[in-house]
């Protein structure tokens, strides 16, 4: 692509950027927590249809994906789990096809009085947009869409099929992206603009979610010594899990992309419930755990070790030794994925194309990082032989209070994405 064409694309993004900011604000005003994504997805479907894309909007059927590699077990039903895909079909198909993927679901906002302003009333201040989901990852969805808009404003469309995906469930299972694969959406590469500060993600961790259910022996607190406190029984079990976490992070156990990361794998007790009455020794306790895994770490072996650790710790407890904990897996059942291990020509070309686009926009080389979280990239890279490039804007306080995204970073990501599409897919006249 010559300099004149690159400049025209960059300027086209600039000309549409006010509209992109307005779009992001509107999209971020939808409180699309898990199970509540419908209004945001309806908005997205309408926007895609208005641009002439063929819209596929469907409810995920667990039975259709439960047998597939990468499926994560779920609790409850999926009555409200709706995916949206907008398809551009090229007239010439002379280029390489592309998936532009992003997730519409956001994590719960937490206590509202701990936000400076309401989380679903996006506000602009000093070049940032604040609000739940602005960074993670509705800004990425906006960048994907307006990169296509910029090309269209110049009278061009991608010269290959492009599938714009707005999926649910990324924050807890990834089953939304898996459902897209099951439905037949495949391409030569995938681009996922998760908010990792304009870096290319070369490796991501796997994640296991599980619950530990404990039983106790209830009695009046006046006779607490004759009962067994299920909540307090959780404490040594959690300590044992943290000892396991330490072992998994030892240098000899690390994946090579994390060899210099002293503590890449994090165990988090994210929720705990138990008991029924303040003056009764609690008869039950449930705590929810998230544990990271390195790429290549076998999920079944990890589960066996987790179970052994918990059962061994329970044997030291007088009540739990005869009433073993119950372990329930739900949510993330995710393997790690390393783009760095994909040595195929397609992957190298995709990375090189993104490097050129990034440099054209920023004047800097593309930085590459191994992250300590997971993304939907694993589905494409592990189960569809598709290199998945995770590359998105700078955001802060994602999953926290006063989440925000850097709008100039969003502009740069949109520009780089437009250049990437133009080079990867090629262009054809509309």
Features:
Alpha-Beta Plaits; six-stranded mixed beta sheet; elongated; four-stranded antiparallel beta sheet; 11 helices; Aminopeptidase; alpha+beta; 430 residues
Plain-language structure description:
The chain is α+β, with helices and mostly antiparallel strands. The chain folds into two domains: about 300 residues, Aminopeptidase (3-Layer(aba) Sandwich); about 130 residues, 2-Layer Sandwich (Alpha-Beta Plaits), CATH 3.30.70. The chain is about 35% helix and about 20% strand. The chain has eleven helices and 19 strands. Strands 1-2-7-3-8-16 form a six-stranded mixed sheet, with helices on both faces. Strand 17 and strand 18 form a beta hairpin. The longest helix is centred in the middle third of the chain and has 20 residues. The protein is elongated and about 80 Å long. The two termini are about 20 Å apart. The mean pLDDT is about 95.
Number of domains: 2
CATH topology of the largest domain: Aminopeptidase
Q: What is the spatial order of strands in the main beta sheet? A: 1-2-7-3-8-16
Mean pLDDT: 97
Number of strands: 19
Largest sheet: 6 strands, mixed
Q: Runs with pLDDT <50, length 5+?
A: none
Helix amount, in percent? 25-40%
CATH architecture of the largest domain: 3-Layer(aba) Sandwich
Protein structure class: alpha+beta
List the quaternary state of the chains.
single chain
Itemize the secondary structure elements and their pairings.
Layout (H helix, E strand, L loop, with lengths): L2 H13 L1 H12 L9 H13 L3 E6 L2 H4 L16 E7 L9 E6 L19 E3 L2 E3 L3 H20 L2 E3 L3 E6 L7 H8 L7 E3 L7 E5 L1 E10 L14 H19 L18 E8 L9 E10 L5 H16 L11 E9 L2 E2 L6 H18 L5 E3 L6 H7 L4 E3 L4 E2 L7 E3 H19 L1 E3 L1
Parallel strand pairs: 3-7, 3-8, 8-16, 9-15
Antiparallel strand pairs: 1-2, 2-7, 4-5, 5-18, 6-19, 9-14, 10-12, 10-13, 11-12, 17-18
